[in-house]
């Protein structure tokens, strides 16, 4: 990350509530081609979430504790606040003296922008201001939220406006919290009804919906220079497994998440330069 920070724009996308098993199945079945095109080897990496619900997980993520590879470690981190005794800070780790890497990137000259999705980013009650408050610029409106059937395309449109309005020389760190996977998601599956409610199938349909529009986000973020992207779930959710429904609980379908990191090539003029 020490070679990337300062030379690349940065994109962090959390596909809020996305289950690992659903993400893997859809990738293998060719149902999310725009995401698979960028996944290293065309597959999701299996990781463990740092929290079982949005607020806890994002507090950890912004402190540099991204989802951890689901294998024995220790695993070097991309970002880490400086503190004695860290066993996951390595030579390539971007080490900072702030409590979160969002403020560290702002100090390094990045414009830090949040495009929120679920309620913890809606800036309405005090709790909904904590995570967006880490950023220099934050955006949320009802059309970005969980109740909107067009939430992600609305978020992408705002992200495109952010990129277009930024001076070319200014580096950008854009964070997008995608609400479409979160309950309610029944409206993403043709024929599903409010009365029947959400299911694993509607969750999968929501991911297909996101895939249809995520190419625009990637194109915007790589329109100025190369972009380093992280796309991950913050936690999964249960649809009746072992009697559980939802998240903020300790179950395999909640703790296990899909993760990917990759570079989006910049425009030709940047490659030549």
Automatic annotation (TrEMBL):
One of its GO terms (molecular function) is hydrolase activity. InterPro entries: Alkaline_phosphatase_core_sf (IPR017850), STM4013-like (IPR047838), Sulfatase_N (IPR000917). Keywords: Hydrolase. Residues 10-251 form the Sulfatase N-terminal domain. It holds the Pfam family Sulfatase. This is STM4013/SEN3800 family hydrolase.
């Amino acid at each position: 990350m020490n070679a990337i920070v300062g030379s690349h724009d940065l994109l962090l996308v959390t596909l809020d509530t996305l289950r690992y098993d659903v993400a893997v199945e859809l990738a293998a079945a060719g149902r999310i081609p725009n995401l698979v095109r960028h996944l290293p080897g065309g597959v999701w990496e299996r990781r463990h979430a740092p929290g079982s619900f949005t607020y806890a997980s994002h507090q950890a993520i912004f402190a540099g504790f991204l989802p951890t590879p689901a294998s024995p470690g220790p695993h070097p981190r991309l970002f880490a606040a400086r503190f004695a005794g860290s066993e996951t800070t390595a030579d390539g780790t971007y080490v900072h003296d702030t409590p979160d890497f969002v403020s560290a990137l702002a100090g390094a000259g990045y414009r830090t922008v949040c495009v929120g999705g679920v309620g913890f980013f809606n800036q309405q009650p005090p709790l909904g201001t904590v995570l967006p408050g880490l950023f220099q610029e934050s955006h949320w409106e009802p059309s970005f939220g969980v109740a909107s059937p067009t939430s992600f395309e609305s978020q992408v449109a705002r992200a495109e406006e952010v990129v277009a309005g930024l001076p070319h020389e200014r580096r950008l760190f854009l964070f997008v919290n995608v609400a479409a996977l979160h309950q309610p998601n029944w409206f993403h599956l043709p024929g599903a009804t409010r009365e029947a409610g959400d299911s694993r199938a509607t969750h999968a349909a929501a991911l297909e919906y996101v895939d249809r529009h995520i190419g625009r986000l990637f194109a915007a973020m790589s329109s100025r220079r190369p972009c380093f992207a992280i796309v991950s779930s913050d936690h999964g959710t249960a649809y009746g497994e072992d009697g559980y429904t939802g998240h903020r609980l300790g179950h395999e379908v909640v703790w296990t998440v899909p993760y990917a990191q990759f570079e989006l090539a910049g425009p030709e003029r940047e490659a030549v330069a």
